[in-house]
């Protein structure tokens, strides 16, 4: 891993910058910060798609927008001190830019999306669907490091299999990996035990387990198992079910996107 692209929505939540900088130091990687799209640009993009703007109330004033972006840039620069780093500004940071720009980087690191003041979920989805690269989502307030103890959420799918390849630079440095499958949340495919055996052939320390969720959702079962097992990172192939279905009915991926208390590395 030699190049990392990162974005934060506000300077009040610099967790993505903190973790991206730590990873850049660990992997001796170049770190690039991307200016977040403005509220106005986001609202116009949604209007062009025939949808209501995701920003409640009136648009932010230009001066407020400049202040927000300047604070985000300053937060990035403070954390990038001593690194090979770069800041990419407004001329290439429209609402879909992170997806296209992200194709040139080994990893994209972003804050956990949600309702304002969090980053809009649509920005995360652009990065995930358009870049072809793994996207690391960092929950607010997270101050640790990731990659020593990993929980790999396996459901038998093509998306989960692809996640193995895309996450291998992180998996290969782990002290332990636990491959977890959840009863009732599998599709036809190899078991967690078979995936663990495959990963062990790479010289990795891997265990596996298949758990029953009880009264919990599959997504919450994954989070609870990761936390109780001392994991610092969850790895997940995203959206085995369609995104629209998950928006309407809920799903494992969307639960992890919006609610995980641990960083989650997604691929699609």
Description:
The protein folds into two domains: 3-138, 3-Layer(aba) Sandwich (Rossmann fold), CATH 3.40.50.620; 149-267, 3-Layer(aba) Sandwich (Rossmann fold). It is built from ten helices and ten strands. Helix 7 (192-200) links the parallel strand 7 (176-182) and strand 8 (206-211). It has a ten-stranded mixed sheet with strand order 3-2-1-4-5-10-9-6-7-8, sandwiched between helices. Helix 8 (218-228) crosses helix 10 (252-259). The protein has helices at residues 15-27, 39-48, 62-79, 97-101, 121-131, 158-171, 192-200, 218-228, 243-249, 252-259, and strands at 3-6, 30-34, 85-88, 107-111, 135-138, 149-153, 176-182, 206-211, 233-237, 264-267. With 268 residues, the protein is α/β, with parallel strands linked by helices. The two termini are 18 Å apart.
Q: What percentage of amino acids are in beta strands?
A: 15-25%
Shape: globular
H/I helix tally: 10
Total strands: the figure is 10
CATH class of the largest domain: Alpha Beta
Give helix % range.
25-40%
Order of helices and strands: EHEHHEHEHEEHEHEHEHHE
What kind of sheet is the major sheet? 10 strands, mixed
Domain tally: 2
The first-to-last residue Cα distance is: 18 Å
InterPro entries: UspA (IPR006016)
Organism: Reyranella soli
Pfam family, one: Usp
Protein name: UspA domain-containing protein
């Amino acid at each position: 891993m030699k190049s990392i692209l990162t974005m934060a929505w506000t300077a009040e939540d610099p967790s993505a910058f903190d973790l991206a900088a730590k990873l850049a130091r660990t992997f001796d990687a170049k770190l690039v910060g991307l200016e977040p799209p403005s509220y106005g640009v986001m609202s116009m993009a949604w209007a062009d798609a025939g949808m209501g703007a995701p920003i409640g109330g009136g648009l932010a004033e230009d001066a407020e927008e400049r202040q927000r972006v300047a604070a985000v840039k300053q937060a990035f620069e403070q954390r990038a001190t001593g690194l090979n780093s770069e800041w990419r500004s407004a001329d290439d940071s429209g609402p879909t830019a992170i997806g296209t720009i992200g194709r040139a980087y080994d990893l994209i690191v972003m804050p956990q999306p949600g309702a304002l003041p969090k980053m809009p979920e649509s920005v995360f989805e652009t990065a995930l669907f358009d870049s072809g690269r793994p996207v690391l989502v960092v929950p607010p307030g997270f101050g640790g490091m990731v990659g020593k103890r990993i929980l790999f959420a396996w459901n038998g799918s093509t998306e989960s299999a692809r996640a193995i390849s895309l996450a291998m630079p992180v998996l290969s440095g782990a002290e332990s990996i636990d491959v977890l499958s959840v009863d009732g949340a599998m599709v036809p495919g190899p078991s967690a035990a078979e995936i663990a055996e495959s990963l062990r052939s790479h010289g990795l320390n891997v265990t596996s387990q298949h758990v029953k969720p009880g009264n919990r959702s599959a997504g919450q079962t994954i989070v609870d198992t990761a936390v109780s097992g001392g994991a610092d990172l969850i790895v997940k192939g995203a959206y085995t079910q369609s995104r629209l279905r998950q928006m309407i009915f809920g799903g494992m991926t969307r639960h992890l996107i919006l609610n995980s208390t641990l960083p989650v590395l997604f691929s699609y």
